[in-house]
């Protein structure tokens, strides 16, 4: 029986219990919530076809139903409840309560509503490429977004079924230095971080800076579009400037050096000290990072990333197949390396089950550079604390009591470290072409994970470069390495000195980076980094070439 026919049974039961019959209204409500077809008329026609099939089935199998209708699960529900109409009614009542909740949220959680009225951006980061061009990272803010987040994430609101973290971001294409100067941006001045914007359709004929880039909107559903924005300087309303998701809500979840014993006890409960079978899956999520560790009957996720680029046709096909597997994962723990979009955007492809488990994350609530993180990252962190405080463990990065450059936890199988948070001065190396672009604070303050088998090891460093690894975390290069920062160029003042067969996996996809030294040499991954690993004996595998890599850790 098709889902549409099954939904009809619940619809019938709901009508009977509520004593109201409005087929078209509830049909459209179901379609809006569970159907992603762009053609609504097609979805309605299909619904009607299966609805009629459900009536025929009901007339045969459940004589006491004489109304009309279409459901969700399996034929087993018919068998289970056919002799108990009250159970069906109760089940249907709960089902449609959820449908109505999600339907009402979809009316709020859409671009038309959340981006209505005046639009503002907070420029939280920018980076120069090797051609001295600049890419800007911006969070979009409107009055509707402010009201929605403030209302839903307030401490006295416990309507968990009504809210899910979402992303509203704009990442510019690379622009020349002259256009960048016109924007009058000082990243260290909070006032200059804020600008007013308008989306531009067609050819722009105004005098303000007009910047092309990638628009990311995930409230309903994930949308990644190429757009242009006009940026204007104007007085920013205090309500907008003062908008800051309240990171104080996570203070009870932050662990520093003074709470290390308490942290150790919590992590002992989460991580096993032995296993019979361990399988590692490294997924293709484009230019992002998503890794699964299946250890006996437990599942651990390291990073929940997804690409902020659409990618070419073949990449899309790989990602689509990979996402089907990702959607079915019900993790026992999520470890987040850091808060860049390509390491957290993947939650948009997962069910709410991903929030019903423990999350271990680097803390940004007390960071001196917290203004350099996107509002979407802050929204996710606030949500995790609001959703279930008992399941959130945030590792401090503050100067006083922070746990930077330390091994946070270690047992016979798992080891978690935290990067140094430092940036490093360029050094000449045989592997480097041209100048080095050291990674930034947001990359090097992150969490790293090591898993130790009887004979083999694997390291998941996130975007943390080798120089920023905590002391003694990597005494020798492991058998398996998920390459830091998607294989970008970085310092290599470490040596690969063991002779074991080794495999290096690079999580990469379509991106805008290029190397000025050699046009065929992409920066993610970078030829210099690949040569360094190959000379150390590593076999190189890029996730862009497949759906996912899966192997056993011995």
List keywords for this structure.
eight-stranded mixed beta sheet; seven-stranded mixed beta sheet; globular; alpha/beta; Metallo-beta-lactamase, Chain A; 15 helices; 554 residues; 3 domains
Strand order in space, largest sheet: 7-13-12-11-10-9-8-21
Distance between the termini: 43 Å
Number of strands: 21
Note the total helix count.
15
What does this structure look like?
The chain is of the alpha/beta class. The chain folds into three domains: 3-108, no CATH class; 112-241, no CATH class; 247-552, Metallo-beta-lactamase, Chain A (4-Layer Sandwich), CATH 3.60.15. Helices cover 29% and strands 21% of the residues. The protein is built from 15 helices and 21 strands. It has helices at 3-18, 23-34, 40-61, 75-81, 85-108, 111-114, 143-152, 177-182, 190-193, 238-241, 260-270, 313-327, 375-387, 441-444, 527-535, and strands spanning 119-128, 134-141, 168-172, 194-200, 210-217, 223-232, 254-255, 278-283, 290-295, 298-304, 333-335, 358-362, 392-395, 406-410, 414-418, 447-452, 457-460, 480-482, 502-506, 538-542, 548-552. It has an eight-stranded mixed sheet with strand order 7-13-12-11-10-9-8-21. It has a seven-stranded mixed sheet with strand order 14-15-16-17-18-19-20, with helices on both faces. The two termini are 43 Å apart. Residues 62-79 have low confidence and may be disordered.
């Amino acid at each position: 029986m098709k889902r549409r026919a099954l939904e009809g049974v619940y619809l019938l039961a709901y009508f009977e219990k509520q004593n109201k019959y409005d087929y078209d209204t509830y049909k459209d409500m179901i379609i809006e919530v569970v159907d992603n077809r762009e053609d609504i008329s097609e979805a309605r026609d299909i619904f009607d076809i299966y609805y009629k099939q459900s009536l025929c089935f009901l007339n045969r199998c459940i004589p006491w139903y004489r109304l009309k209708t279409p459901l969700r699960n399996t034929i087993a529900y018919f068998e289970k409840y056919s002799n108990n109409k009250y159970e069906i009614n109760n089940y249907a009542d709960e089902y449609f309560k959820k449908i109505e909740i999600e339907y009402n949220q979809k009316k709020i959680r859409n671009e038309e509503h959340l981006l209505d009225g005046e639009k503002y951006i907070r420029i939280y980061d920018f980076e120069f490429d090797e051609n001295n061009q600049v890419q800007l990272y911006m969070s979009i803010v409107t009055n509707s977004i402010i009201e929605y987040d403030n209302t839903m994430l307030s401490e006295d609101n416990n309507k968990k079924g009504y809210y899910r973290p979402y992303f509203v971001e704009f990442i510019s294409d690379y622009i020349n230095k002259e256009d960048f100067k016109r924007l009058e941006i000082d990243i260290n001045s909070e006032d200059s971080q804020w600008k007013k914007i308008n989306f531009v359709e067609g050819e722009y004929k105004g005098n303000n800076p007009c910047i092309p880039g990638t628009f990311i909107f995930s409230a309903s559903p994930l949308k990644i579009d190429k757009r242009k924005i006009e940026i204007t300087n104007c007085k920013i309303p205090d309500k907008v400037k003062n908008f800051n998701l309240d990171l104080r809500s996570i203070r009870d979840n932050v662990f520093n050096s003074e709470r290390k014993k308490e942290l150790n006890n919590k992590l002992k409960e989460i991580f096993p000290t032995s296993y019979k079978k361990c399988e590692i899956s490294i997924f293709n999520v484009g230019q992002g990072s998503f890794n699964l560790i299946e250890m006996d009957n437990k599942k651990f996720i390291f990073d929940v990333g997804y690409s902020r680029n659409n990618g070419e046709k073949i990449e899309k096909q790989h990602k689509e197949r990979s996402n089907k597997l990702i959607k079915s994962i019900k993790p026992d723990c999520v470890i987040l390396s850091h808060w860049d979009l390509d390491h957290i955007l993947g939650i948009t492809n997962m069910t709410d089950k991903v929030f019903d488990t423990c999350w271990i994350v680097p803390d940004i609530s007390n960071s001196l550079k917290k203004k350099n993180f996107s509002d979407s990252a802050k929204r996710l962190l606030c949500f995790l604390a609001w959703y279930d405080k008992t399941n959130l463990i945030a590792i401090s990065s503050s100067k006083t009591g922070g746990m930077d450059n330390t091994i946070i936890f270690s047992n016979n199988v798992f080891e978690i470290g935290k990067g140094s948070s430092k940036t490093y001065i360029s050094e000449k190396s045989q592997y480097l072409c041209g100048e080095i672009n050291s990674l930034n604070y947001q990359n090097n303050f992150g969490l790293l994970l090591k898993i130790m088998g009887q004979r083999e090891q694997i390291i998941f460093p996130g975007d943390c470069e080798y120089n920023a690894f905590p002391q003694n975390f990597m005494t020798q290069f492991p058998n398996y390495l998920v390459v830091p920062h998607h294989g970008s160029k970085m310092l290599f003042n470490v040596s690969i000195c063991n002779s074991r067969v080794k495999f290096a996996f690079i999580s990469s996809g379509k991106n805008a980076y290029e190397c000025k030294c050699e046009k065929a040499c992409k920066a993610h991954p970078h030829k210099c980094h690949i040569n360094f690993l190959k000379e150390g004996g590593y076999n190189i595998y890029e996730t862009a070439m497949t759906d996912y890599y899966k192997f056993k850790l011995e």
